[in-house]
Amino acid sequence: MITTAQFIQxxxxxxxxxxxxxxxxxxxxxxxxxxxxxLVGVTGxxxxxxxxLFALGLGLFTHTTVPGAVRYSLIYDNGAxxxxxxxxxxxxxxxxxxxxxxxxxxLFSYGRLGSGDGKLxxxxxxxxxxxxxxxxxxxLGEVTRSLANxxxxxxxxxxxDNLARLPKSTTEQENS
Length: 176
Fold this sequence. Notes:
By secondary structure, the chain is an alpha+beta fold. Helices cover 41% and strands 20% of the residues. It is built from 5 helices and 5 strands. Helix 1 packs antiparallel against helix 2. The protein is elongated, with a radius of gyration of 25 Å. Residues 170-174 have low confidence and may be disordered.
């Protein structure tokens, strides 16, 4: 992901290009070159481009990092009020809560369609194998947040009975 500093640096280079094209356009008008009006267009375009890059560099993108969150895969998103993420089956309760909070922050967007109660619900699931050749999806929890504003109010619900059904890792079995 491009950082704020990289947007500012790109805006600087685009500003230099704008000044160079402006100087070239002035020279083209002095010597009555045939491309002088095209150079005015190029100067205007690079000016708009450098202004846009500068605006992006002001920090319009904020990324929240929740400590303890594990990587997840987005497996379903209807673009409105419901999304689902996949997690590894070796997850602890604290990691699950942190990951749900991370997904709640990552998947929030003002462009989502709000319908019904105006809440975004993100469900976390994993796949377990109770016996050979059998795969079973298991929902571990969900997070609900408002679609109307970017408040930090997240409602996290963990399904502890399903979390207890997860297979124990080999290190946990050795310590028991």
